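Input chain follows. Return structure tokens only.
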Amino acid sequence: MINFNYDNPSELDIRDISINIHPSLLFVYHDYACPVCHNKHAVYSMQGGIFQPCWECQKNGYRIVKKIEPKNKILAILHKLFYVSKYE
């Protein structure tokens, strides 16, 4: 596990990411590193406009997902009982 020892999010350097979409819309060139291993390029999802971990990290089970918090306890229980992620 990587520990960056940042006490305050304002200490993080925000990096400019260049994303170039090929005119054919089949390829995307970018300079964003994998958020898991930091060694390879991340995979850009053009459908959602987000970066996923590199292919190797995805094979190891890492994904970027949005966590949904139900608004009340009954919905939270139903969500835990019946929700199945497409990645499980």
